[in-house]
Structure formats: structure tokens, C-alpha cells
Design goal:
Elements (H helix, E strand, L loop, with lengths): L1 H6 L6 H11 L8 E4 L4 H7 L3 H13 L7 E3 L11 H8 L3 E3 L3 H7 L3 E9 L3 H12 L4 E9 L3 H14 L4
Parallel strand pairs: 1-4, 4-5
Antiparallel strand pairs: 2-3
Helix pairs in contact: 2-4
């Protein structure tokens, strides 16, 4: 579903995916604003939309809190898919900043921010975004994603392919 939403451009999937996000939302926490992980303008132009922003709007509507597009991607990055953990961290280092100006500072400073992304693999993107938000004065940043990739399976697949590649029985 996530792949169809993101790459198949089936934007109507934001509602059922929003249902999954809403079900995972911590009930004992309160947030002042919802912020999506931004795409670089070229990637957003190519895709036609920011999947995280649509999900953020869905959650914000359900919770009655504002969406604040406080983050901007200040440099284009490679697609995270296919990169190693180290490569992912390096790829997004200093890729995000908070927007400047008093209006943006007021919307972030002292606030509890719910950061929305579609998938978390290593957490590198989320960590980079959270750091930018904290530097802008957010008191708390929590992440909510539809899915989390279990990278531990990569090692199991690698070991399995090596043991069968040698022809042992």
C-alpha cells in the first residue's frame, strides 16, 4: 500500500494509511503541531505531492492541531533505499533546516512537535529532522510513521544466501 501511495501516486490511500497512523498515535501525549518530513522541491515536483505532508494533514485534521511546514530540505539527497546505514546517515546530515523568521520561530519554539514520515528504516532522516526542530527551540519531537523496516532481516538473508550459494546440503 505504501509503495502504491508513494510511487503509484494513489493519493486516496492517505485515508487508510492515516487510519494506521491514528491507531498508533500515543493517547497519553499531546502535541502542539504536526510537521511532515519535507521532500526536496525537485522530488516533490516529479512525484506531484509530498506523501508525508498528506499524512500529516490527515493526522492534524483528526487531532485538531495545526500542520506546520517548519522544515525545509536544503539540499537534494540520494534516495535512501539501497544505501547502507552509514550511507543513510551521511546522506541526510545537514539536509534539513527549520525555516527562518519570527513567524516560524513562534510556531516551533517551546512546542511539542509530532514529526510524520511514511517509513522509517534506520531513523537517519527522522534524527536529522528532529535535530533541526530542536535547534529551532522545539521542546519535544516525536516521530510517527506508517511502517518501520526491520533491517535485521538483511543480515539473515545475507547469511542464508551465502550458505545455499556454496551448494551445501
Amino acid at each position: 500500500m505504501i509503495h502504491l501511495y508513494k510511487y503509484g501516486r494513489i493519493q486516496t490511500l492517505r485515508q487508510p494509511l492515516g487510519d494506521l497512523l491514528a491507531a498508533a498515535l500515543p493517547r497519553d501525549e499531546r502535541f502542539d503541531a504536526v510537521t511532515p518530513v519535507p521532500l526536496h522541491w525537485r522530488r516533490q515536483w516529479h512525484r506531484g505531492f509530498n506523501q508525508s505532508e498528506l499524512l500529516a494533514r490527515e493526522i492534524a485534521r483528526r487531532c485538531g492541531i495545526p500542520v506546520v511546514n517548519a522544515l525545509k530540505r536544503v539540499r537534494a539527497t540520494l534516495t535512501q533505499a539501497g544505501l547502507s546505514n552509514t550511507g543513510r546517515r551521511r546522506n541526510v546530515t545537514k539536509a534539513f533546516q527549520c525555516r527562518r523568521g519570527a513567524r516560524w520561530v513562534r510556531r516551533i519554539e517551546g512546542k511539542r512537535i509530532l514529526l510524520i514520515d511514511d517509513v522509517m528504516t534506520t531513523g537517519s532522516t527522522a534524527a536529522s529532522c528532529a535535530l533541526a526542530l530542536k535547534r529551532a527551540g522545539a521542546v519535544r519531537v516525536a516521530l510517527l510513521t506508517i511502517a518501520r523496516v526491520d533491517r535485521r532481516m538483511d543480515g539473515l538473508r545475507d547469511r542464508a544466501s551465502h550458505s545455499t550459494a556454496g551448494g551445501t546440503s
